[in-house]
């Protein structure tokens, strides 16, 4: 792997020195990694997670290689509708993670802040804004974003429109779940479809959207089957495997290719041995680079992440007969929309289904809803006698996560979990969460 490391160092150096001239080198690295995954799968990974990583690397590399094949979106954009026009959705949050693969997030974040972007903006957004402002990444023809769930979405896309001329559609997602709200968002989705028709010259086929929803329903059912099996069997994966699964569920949901992969994983996992370790349900973002977390959750027979709420943030069956209303209802009922008590209820339901030994919530720096609602979730899980650990850090900016602090808290939590000290776990998590937040406030 030293060749890959050397290339990463080379591309980062060239990008820092001449950001407007290195896109082809960045893209070449994505393509090379795509073929590497197909020819030399990740060592120690299960076959399903190998295929998943290869699929997501191919999806991003192939999309970026054809500028007219994609639109930008946030992670909750309606990829099913966009796919009806033969277009891929490239999430700016996920693309920021890919840029982080070149260790460029610090350069792009600093570049954005030097251009006047507020330091308090989410680091995923700052990474992307810096990548665009610096000229390192070319702009597409069109973009779309939703108000769900980050308050930085609208401002980021407005900024990109103003600075780089990227037109976009804003989908205003209501908080309330009632007929009027679903009608309101469904009308916006219909207008969005007409806009895509006009801009890309492709007629909209409603039957194609219905077929996508049928596939989506089947995919979600198969994925829940897989999660239940993963709570019973050891299926070697890595922290980043769950990030790839989240990407698949938000960028490829409704495609036959992704459904076939999940079906393969359901069959494949049944050939693996029974899992005897501790099962973890992960909440919110996945800091895929963090060394301590990787050491405990990358192909570890003692601790296994069995699911993440951000992977399956919508669980209901969609009504294909009214496809626009089905998509509108799905977006509105997403566990990241509305009050945090709504999320707590849905996570509680997921916990009752999968029976984890513990829950870990990662509070991404700059994400207000994550940090602000964690106590409500902890109270809900306490009712179920499920211990919970809250970790603070940054999902992408390595400089903003403290490995020593994460290591200390995680190891103490896992040790008590191993010894069955559930009461001490709850008390430990609460005390450390309070003290750490006091320290941050004082700083």
Q: Radius of gyration, Cα only, in angstroms?
A: 21 Å
- Which percent range fits the helix content? 55-70%
Shape: globular
Mean pLDDT: 90
Number of helices: 18
**Spatial strand order of the main sheet:** 2-1-3-4
Alpha-beta content class: alpha/beta
Approximate strand percentage: 5-15%
Would you report the number of β strands? 8
For the largest beta-sheet, the strand count, sense and barrel status come to: 4 strands, parallel
**Total domains:** 1
Distance between the termini: 40 Å
Uncertain regions spanning at least 5 consecutive residues: 434-443
Order of helices and strands: HHHEHEHHHEHEHHHHEHEHHEHEHH
Keywords: Iron, Iron-sulfur, Metal-binding
Cofactor: [4Fe-4S] cluster
Pfam families: HGD-D
InterPro entries: FldB/FldC_alpha/beta
Explain the layout of strands and helices:
Blueprint: H1 2-17, H2 23-39, H3 47-64, E1 70-73, H4 79-83, E2 88-91, H5 92-100, H6 105-114, H7 123-133, E3 143-146, H8 153-164, E4 168-171, H9 179-200, H10 206-230, H11 239-251, H12 256-269, E5 278-284, H13 291-297, E6 303-308, H14 323-332, H15 340-354, E7 358-364, H16 368-383, E8 388-393, H17 403-418, H18 422-442
Parallel strand pairs: 1-2, 1-3, 3-4, 5-6, 5-7, 7-8
Helix pairs in contact: 1-2, 2-3, 3-11, 3-12, 5-7, 6-7, 7-8, 9-14, 10-12, 15-16, 17-18
């Amino acid at each position: 792997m030293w060749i890959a490391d050397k290339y990463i160092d080379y591309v980062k150096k060239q990008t820092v020195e001449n950001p407007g001239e290195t896109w082809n080198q960045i893209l070449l690295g994505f393509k090379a990694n795509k073929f590497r995954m197909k020819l030399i799968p990740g060592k120690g990974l299960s076959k399903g997670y190998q295929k998943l990583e290869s699929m997501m690397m191919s999806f991003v590399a192939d999309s970026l290689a054809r500028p007219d094949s994609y639109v930008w979106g946030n992670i909750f954009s309606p990829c099913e509708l966009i796919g009806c026009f033969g277009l891929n959705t490239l999430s700016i949050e996920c693309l920021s993670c890919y840029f982080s693969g070149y260790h460029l997030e610090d350069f792009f974040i600093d570049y954005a802040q030097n251009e006047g972007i507020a330091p308090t903006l989410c680091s995923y957004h700052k990474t992307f804004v810096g990548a665009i402002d610096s000229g390192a990444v070319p702009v597409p023809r069109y973009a779309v974003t939703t108000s769900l769930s980050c308050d930085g979405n609208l401002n980021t896309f407005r900024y990109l429109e103003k600075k780089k001329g990227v037109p976009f559609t804003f989908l205003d997602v209501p908080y309330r779940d009632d007929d009027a709200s679903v009608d309101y968002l469904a009308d916006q989705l219909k207008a969005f479809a007409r806009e895509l028709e006009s801009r890309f010259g492709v007629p909209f086929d409603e039957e194609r959207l219905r077929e996508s929803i049928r596939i989506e329903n089947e995919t979600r059912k198969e994925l829940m089957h897989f999660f239940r099996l993963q709570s019973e069997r050891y299926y070697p994966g890595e922290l980043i495997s769950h990030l790839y699964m989240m990407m698949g569920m938000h960028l490829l949901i409704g495609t036959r290719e992704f459904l076939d992969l999940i079906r393969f994983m359901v069959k494949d996992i049944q050939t693996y041995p029974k899992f005897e370790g501790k099962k973890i349900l992960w909440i919110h973002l996945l800091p895929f680079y963090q060394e301590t977390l990787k050491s405990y959750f990358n192909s570890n027979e003692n601790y296994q992440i069995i699911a993440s709420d951000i992977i399956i943030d919508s669980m209901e069956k969609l009504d294909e007969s009214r496809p626009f209303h089905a998509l509108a209802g799905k977006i509105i009922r997403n566990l990241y929309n509305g009050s945090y008590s709504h999320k707590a209820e849905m996570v509680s339901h997921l916990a009752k289904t999968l029976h984890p030994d513990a829950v870990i919530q990662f509070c991404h720096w700059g994400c207000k809803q994550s940090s602000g609602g964690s106590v409500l979730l902890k109270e809900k899980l306490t009712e179920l006698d499920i211990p919970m650990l809250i970790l603070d850090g940054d999902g992408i900016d390595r400089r903003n996560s403290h490995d020593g602090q994460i290591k200390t808290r995680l190891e103490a939590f896992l040790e008590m979990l191993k010894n069955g000290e559930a009461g001490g776990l709850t008390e430990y998590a609460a005390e450390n969460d309070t003290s750490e937040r006091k320290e941050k406030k004082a700083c």
